[in-house]
Design goal:
Length: 209
């Protein structure tokens, strides 16, 4: 039996070693999942409704509060050249609007202008009068004129309409969404949730192969 006390620096070194092992194992699994998806690039892209089903499945996983924001941001990234608007860089998931100066969860600007023209705010519940009052206070405090302030409580309804309207860009949207999900820090999207999306997409696309 080991009875000798370990030095704190040795314990810290061992903890770091284990964390690095876990990180490397996670990275390897992700690379394998992504590599498999790349092998299916030549198959027919998922239909719009199949993508909606895939997103619903992903949203039904645990810890998905960040996903609706990424869905909206991905949609604008996909068609920015067509509509002349693009979303600003997203703030950290746990950053408060009063700290960042943000007006909404997703802020849309003109492609050649930094002026915010549309704001989206995601809610997982019915919008209350308090929500509206807070939004009005933020709008009044900003120097720029906001053309649209939109609350979204049914993000899939929004994306279903988008995918049918921009049907030819549906695969681009899915790839951009995947990239955004994988790029998020694990503090906002867990490793399990990232792997879940890749696994769900793999199954969906395998069914079409």
């Amino acid at each position: 039996m080991h009875t000798q006390k370990e030095k704190p620096e040795n314990i810290l070194q061992e903890i770091i070693r284990f964390l690095l092992i876990i990180r490397d194992e996670d990275d390897l699994r992700m690379k394998r999942l992504v590599a498999y998806l790349k092998q299916t690039d030549d198959i027919l892209p998922l239909a719009s409704e199949e993508i909606v089903t895939l997103l619903i499945q992903h949203l039904n996983c645990k810890g998905t509060s960040r996903l609706p924001v990424l869905i909206i941001a991905s949609a604008y990234q996909t068609v920015k050249e067509r509509i002349g608007e693009i979303n600003k860089l997203l703030e950290a998931h746990n950053a408060a609007d009063r700290q960042t100066g943000s007006i909404g969860d997703v802020e849309i600007t003109l492609t050649n202008d930094n002026q915010v023209v549309t704001c989206y705010e995601m809610k997982d519940k019915r919008v209350s009068q308090t929500d509206i009052d807070v939004a009005l206070q933020k709008i009044l405090k900003t120097k720029n004129k906001i053309d649209n302030y939109i609350f979204i409580t049914t993000e899939i309804g929004f994306i279903r309409h988008f995918l049918h309207f921009f049907h030819r860009q549906r695969k681009d949207f899915l790839n951009i969404y995947q990239s955004m999900v994988l790029a998020e820090p694990t503090s906002s999207i867990s490793q399990q949730l990232k792997e879940a999306f890749l696994a769900l997409r793999r199954v969906a696309e395998a069914d079409r192969g």
